[in-house]
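Hey, quick one: can you model this chain's 3D structure?
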Amino acid sequence: MKKYLLWSFERGSRPYDAICAAILAFIFLTPSTLFHDRPDYMRIVKDQPIRRTTDKNGNLVYTVQVNMPAFTPALAAEKAALDRLHDSIHEKFTVTRTVPVFDTTGVLVAYSIWIDIGG
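Sure thing. Here's the predicted structure for all 119 residues.
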């Protein structure tokens, strides 16, 4: 076991290849959802098209899902998300920051929008 932990095998030997295969299997076969590496405001919940959360500083963040065609310009998708948020919140607010949210294939699925109520 000590040899495996210290990686003391020659390149090209069977134990070396077995360790490399185990590492590659871990990298490619472990589902990405196991690590929870996204902040809460970047998580998409299918049954919540608009989701209210807070960031680590306590700021109010809405994650608004967008269903736009693949080649829609980013500004149009962001405007659609902002319009959808304006329709759901019946208070005056100002947008302080927006961040696009992509799925694992790189497709834009939502925007995280930081707002100040009453501004």
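One thing worth noting: The beta strands are 50-54, 60-65, 93-102, 108-117.
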